[in-house]
Amino acid sequence: MSSEIYVSTDVEADGPIPGPHSMLSFASAAYTEDKQLIATFSANLELLEGAAPHPVQEAWWKTQPEAWAACRTDLQHPAEALAAYVDWVEALPGKPVFVAMPAGFDFTYMFWYMMRFVGRCPFSWSALDIKTLAFAMTGLPYRKNIKPRFPKHWFDEHPHTHVALDDAIEQGALFCNMLKDLRAMQAADIAANQEGDGSGQNPAEEPAN
User: Fold this and answer.
1) Which 3-state string (H, E, C) describes the chain?
2) Domains in the chain: how many in total?
3) pTM score over 0.70
4) Does Nuclease appear among the keywords (predicted)?
5) Which of 79, 91, 146, 148 could bond to 117 as cystine, CB 3.0-4.6 Å?
């Protein structure tokens, strides 16, 4: 059975939803579970016909001139870029898993664009949300699971620039570090359960008097 490939994906857009607004740029960084970066893909896109920027995002982009310039060069038509992207995902050496933070935003855009311009999505209907994974691991309330509250060792020294490829790589490394901790937690739980089974006593039970 093929191993999973974690496709960390970042979307830069000019509004909260696709259709009325456009995806400006997107990038994916494909990682193995042991944090090997095996491939990347990125594209800057032409705007959707009839779409317009949302005033909030339009104002924000004016504060990010370098990232704006980076996402407005070498523009491709969405049909061309998304067809190439789907082919790229389907050629990865494992089962692709879409990873993002928040997945609700990035996957909404990517799924809409793939279905609109290609007619299929290699990730099926699923996306793995880093924020939700953090909620399960940290014990913090869901809305408090923001990056400044994450354990420091989850982060490698990657820049967060709002350039899609930079952010996809940074986010993928973060996810792999979290996954390493999760596997360690799972292994510890298994070992504890096996130790309890070996003694003939359930660890949750009180010892007999």
Assistant:
1) CCCEEEEEEEEEECCCCECCECEEEEEEEEECCCCCEEEEEEEEECCCCCCCCCHHHHHHHCCCHHHHHHHCCCEECHHHHHHHHHHHHHCCCCEEEEEECCHHHHHHHHHHHHHHHCCCCCCCCCCEEHHHHHHHHHCCCHHHCCHHHCCHHHCCCCCCCCCHHHHHHHHHHHHHHHHHHHHHHHHHHHHHHHHHHHCCCCCCCCCCC
2) 1
3) yes
4) yes
5) 79
Rounded to an integer, what is the distance from CA 183 to the centroid of its chain? 19
End-to-end C-alpha distance for the chain, whole angstroms: 49
Q: Which residues are bridge partners to 98 per DSSP?
A: 7
Please, what is the angle between helix 103-117 and helix 78-90, to 10°? 110
Q: What is the spatial distance between Cα 109 and Cα 16, in angstroms, rounded to a whole number?
A: 9
- In DSSP terms, which residues pair with 11 in a beta bridge? 26
With respect to residue 20, please indicate whether it lies within any of the assigned structural domains: yes
- Using a 10 angstrom Cβ sphere, with 0-12 exposed, 13-18 middle and 19 or more buried, the burial of residue 43 is buried
Residue 119, token pair as written in the block? 């007619």
Mean pLDDT calculated for residue range 38-49: 99
Q: What is the pLDDT of residues 113-155, one digit of tens each?
A: 999 999 999 999 999 999 999 999 999 999 999 999 999 999 9
What CATH number did the domain enclosing 43 receive? 3.30.420.10
Residue 194 or residue 101, greater confidence:
101
